[in-house]
Design a protein that fits this description.
The protein is an alpha+beta fold. It has 3 domains: 65 residues, OB fold (Dihydrolipoamide Acetyltransferase, E2P) (Beta Barrel), CATH 2.40.50.100; 117 residues, no CATH class; 86 residues, Beta Barrel (Elongation Factor Tu (Ef-tu), domain 3), CATH 2.40.30. The protein has 7 helices and 14 strands. It has a 6-stranded antiparallel sheet, with no helix packed on it. It has a 4-stranded antiparallel sheet with strand order 2-9-7-4, with no helix packed on it.
Length: 358
């Protein structure tokens, strides 16, 4: 007779309790894990907090400046035609070196004429100071002696005619003629004596002053034209570099129009235009570090040397919501504390401003 295998014992639920499967079937609302709830809450807080943080965070204020240097826009004070340009663009020039030569024949002719007029005036002054020549003085003395002799002869003729007229041996008309001749001789003698005395005494102080004034007027005219002639050659005012030439050889130029532009790269500074509420802790001598994008963000240390108010007002914002004026702009100049290779005018710099106003 086959022996049946023993079947596993059936657990008694009343004693051991329900099985896990039965427990899951019996529990209609199972509990969610605590970790999932925490993750969901963190995600919600992140989604809501990031926009709020982004809207309320304060970014650092970045200021931008520009590297500048002395710039010379040279123009002539005379008109003419460009005769020569002895420099080239990007070339270096020294102080006093000619950069443009202008041709103006009319001006040169006027200058030579003024020099001749000055020479004439100076010769007249020298003659006035030297006095009358001995030959001229001798001529004046001879004229005086002749006038004196003529007067003596006229006086004797008058005396004879008067005696004859008194004796009725001569008509009254002869006496009148003798009197007229005597009067004419007296005037001639007085004139000759005056001319001789004038030659002996020479020019008066007033005459010398007049001649001297003429010399000064002629010299002033010559110097004025000389200054214009000097402007025919435009010279460099300092050791500098040519950055722009606005004319070509043969062009006609007029006074006041820039012909060439020079810069002095040896004297560089950085210009910032800042609102006045950013300058609370800035004064001459303050140092700051900037970056130069053209030099691969190289750091450059600057020293503030000048702060000046600009002529206009920057309408960035008003100090109060209902204010009736705008904050003013100030120009700040900062110079590198040491030479920087590759630094050129026109490059930009930037820096983070330490204190950003509300």
């Amino acid at each position: 007779m086959r022996r049946q295998k023993d079947s596993p014992p059936v657990p008694d639920e009343s004693i051991a309790g329900p099985t896990p499967a039965a427990a899951r079937l019996a529990d209609p609302a199972p509990r969610r894990p605590v970790a999932a709830i925490l993750i969901a809450a963190l995600l919600v807080m992140t989604i809501l907090g990031l926009p709020a943080w982004y809207l309320t965070r304060r970014d650092p204020l970045v200021i931008q400046g520009e590297i500048q240097c002395p710039t010379f826009d040279l123009a002539a004070r005379v008109d003419g035609r460009v005769a020569d340009i002895p420099v080239s663009r990007a070339g270096n020039v020294t102080r006093g070196a000619p950069v443009i030569r202008i041709d103006n024949p009319e001006l040169l002719a006027k200058y030579r004429q003024s020099e001749a007029e000055l020479a004439v005036a100076q010769a007249a002054l020298a003659r006035a100071k030297a006095g009358v020549r001995a030959e001229t003085l001798a001529v004046r003395k001879a004229q005086l002696d002749r006038a004196a002799a003529d007067q003596t002869l006229a006086q004797q003729a008058y005396d004879r005619k008067r005696q004859l007229a008194a004796a009725r041996d001569a008509p009254p008309a002869d006496l009148d003629s003798a009197a007229a001749a005597l009067a004419a001789a007296d005037r001639a003698l007085a004139q000759a004596r005056s001319a001789y005395d004038d030659a002996v005494a020479g020019d008066t102080a007033e005459d010398l002053a007049v001649v001297q004034a003429r010399v000064e007027a002629a010299r002033a005219g010559t110097e004025a034209l000389r200054a214009l002639v000097d402007q025919l050659t435009v010279q460099a005012p300092a050791d500098s570099q040519v950055v722009r030439i606005a004319v070509e050889t043969g062009e006609v130029v007029v006074p006041g129009v820039p012909l060439i532009t020079l810069v002095d790269p040896g004297d560089l500074w950085v210009r910032f235009d800042l609102r006045e509420d950013l300058l609370a802790d800035v004064r001459p001598g303050t140092r700051l570090t900037v970056r130069v994008p053209a030099l691969r963000d190289r750091k450059v240390e600057l020293e503030v040397r000048a702060i000046a108010a600009k002529g206009d007002y920057a309408g960035w914002r008003t100090p109060r919501p209902a204010g009736d004026f705008d904050l003013r702009s100030f120009e700040m100049r900062a110079y590198p504390t040491r030479p920087v290779d590759g630094l050129r005018p026109g490059m930009s710099v930037y820096a983070e401003w330490p204190d950003r106003p509300q």
